Structure formats: C-alpha cells, structure tokens
Amino acid sequence: MKYSVPVLSLYFILVIILITGCTKYAKDGHMKQPGIALTFDDDRIDNWYQYLPFLDSFGVKATFYVCKYNRFTPEQKQKLSVIQNHGHEIAFHSLNHYNMPDYVYKYKYTLDELINNEVVAGLNLMNRDGFYPVTFAYPYGAHNDIIDKKLMRYFKSVRALNGTSDFAKSLAPTQKNDLLFGLGIDKSSKRTDESVLQLIKSAADNSNCAIFVAHDINTSIKLSVTKERLRKMFTHVNQLGLQYYTISEISN
C-alpha cells in the first residue's frame, strides 16, 4: 500500500507525539517528572477564588480539600466550579471537620457511623452538584491505619500532616501513593522560607514530589500562607523546571 506525502508526514508526527508522551507519562497515566503538590484545606472558597489569577499567573494547579460542603451557598458552589475549571483538583476533607480518631475512640461512634456521617453523606452532596472527589485529607492530620484502610475503599489516597522534623517525609514518589504527609507552610508552622525552598530543591534532586499544606492565602489569621512565600515557591519551582501536580495525579 502506498501513502501520499501528507499522510506519511501525519504518521511521523503521531509517532513523535506518542514517543514524547511516553517519556512524560507512566503506563498508568501518572507523570514521572519531579515537582510539587500544593494543597489547601477547609472551606475558604471565597479566599481561594480571589487568588485564582495569582495562581494562574505562575501556571500553578493545586488541590483543594473541601469540608463543610453542606454549608456552602449557591455562590460558593459556583466559585468552586470555577476553581475546578481552572485545572485544580477538588478533593475531600470530611463533612464537618471532626478529628476522626476521636470520633470513634473518644466519642464512641462506630467506624461505620464515622464513614457514613462524615464521608458518604458529604460525597453524596458533592456528587449531586457535579463534584467527584477521589482523594482525601484528614482534619487536623489525625489518622490511624484502621481508618486509612477504610477510607481507601473510597479514595485513591489519604493525606495526613508531617508533624515531625523530618521534612523528607513530605517527599513522595510521582506515582502510586496511598498515604501522603503534607508539610505545613502557613504562618502557624513557623517554618522559614529557606526550609520550604530547600524541600522543593530536594524534590528536584531526588526526582520526588514535595507535598505542601496551606489554608487561607494572604490573610491575617495564623492558618494562612503569605502571598510572598507562595511567590518565592512558585519562582523556585519554575526556575528548577518542576511540574505542578494535583494529588490525584500522584495517587494510586
């Protein structure tokens, strides 16, 4: 069978695309290059929406772990949809933001009651409005193995907090993760810019993904990351040629 020159040209272009795509993506679709996964927790929809142009200006895509969805106004739900349409991941942070181990072991609810009341109920509300979270972050970072395994029936990964001095705990492979430990970067963390930038550099050096956790952006409360810190982080990421990942992209 003979092919015309235009057909052959198209054939070779497709081959090149497939080859270059395979160097960037694993067979399961997860990206292989080192990078960072920036995550935001809670219900700060109005604040996050305000800073979408700032995130866009650096090419950032982040993961927003949402809680208290049952209290969102129609306007906030619309803003959440806009955030998602900008390429960010909408993830899940429980319905009422209770400490989950305490819910079971201190207040004596069953594990099934915890899952039904704080996970299934919230997911149903979000699904009804067109949001389908596939990753989860623990309220207060409190978790244990038993709850981890239960949640894995509903999510690709769960994220706790790195409360140790071992920052490397927040470096994860760029694929096939189920339990992640994010490093807090809010003012309350009292971490220096230098330590945060060093973790980004470590991700580049070790072909890993650095996981970061924030809440508000540039407000007066302690659970807020400054715009200047984020600017330094994004500049460093872009200078090193790293990728921005959502959590679902590096999860099982």
Entry keywords:
252 residues, two-stranded parallel sheet, single chain, TIM Barrel, alpha/beta, 9 helices, 41% helix
What's the helix-strand series? HEHHEHEHHEHEEEHEEEHE
- Which class of secondary structure composition applies to the elements? alpha/beta
Low-confidence stretches: 5-29
**How many H/I helical runs?**
9
Count all strands and give the number.
11
Overall description:
The structure is a single chain. The protein is an alpha/beta fold. It has a single domain (28-250), classed as Alpha-Beta Barrel (TIM Barrel), CATH 3.20.20.370. The chain is built from nine helices and eleven strands. The chain has helices at 5-24, 45-50, 52-57, 74-85, 100-105, 111-128, 145-151, 193-206, 227-240; strands spanning 35-42, 63-66, 89-92, 135-137, 157-161, 171-172, 179-184, 209-214, 216-217, 224-225, 243-244. Strands 1, 2, 3, 4, 5, 6, 7, 8 and 11 form a nine-stranded mixed beta sheet that branches. A two-stranded parallel ribbon has the order 9-10. Strand 2 (63-66), helix 4 and strand 3 (89-92) form a beta-alpha-beta unit. Helix 8 (193-206) packs parallel to helix 9 (227-240). It is globular. It starts with a helix and ends in an 8-residue tail after the last strand. The model is unreliable at 5-29 (pLDDT under 50).
